[in-house]
Amino acid sequence: MAFQKVLFLTLVGFFLSLPFAWPGRAAVETVAMTAETGGGFARLRFDWAEPVGFDAKIGGRRLVIRFDRPFTTSLRGARAILSDFVAT
User: Fold this and answer.
1) Is the pLDDT of residue 3 over 90?
2) Which residue in 1, 11, 43, 46 has the fewest CB atoms around it within 10 Å?
């Protein structure tokens, strides 16, 4: 359960910090994010308008995803869908 809490808080912190990571950019893309579970795993899907590079690493008990471009998204509903994997 502690891992789930750390993962969720890490994701929330990451997404909230994105607008400040590139202060020189006037427009930040809005990207739809969906979450799903099945077969003992969880998936986050980011629907970008164009392909974008990313890097995902697990360090300790944290998943860190870094994208090549800044964006905003809504985490609404993700906690409920990922409740077996993420906690607050």
Assistant:
1) no
2) 1
Total domains, the chain: 1
- Give 16-54 pLDDT, tens digit per residue: 666 666 555 557 899 999 999 999 888 999 999 999 999
Q: Are 3 and 88 in contact (CB under 8 A)?
A: no
Report how far apart, in Å, the C-alpha atoms of 39 and of each of 4, 36, 42 are. 17, 10, 8
Contact between residue 78 and residue 33 where contact means Cβ atoms under 8 Å apart: yes
3-state SS class at 62: strand
The predicted model scores a pTM of: 0.62
Round the CA-based radius of gyration of the chain to a whole number and report it: 13
Provide the Cα torsion 68, 66, 77, 5; round to 10°: -170
The domain containing residue 32 runs over which residues?
A: 2-81
Three-class SS state of 38:
strand
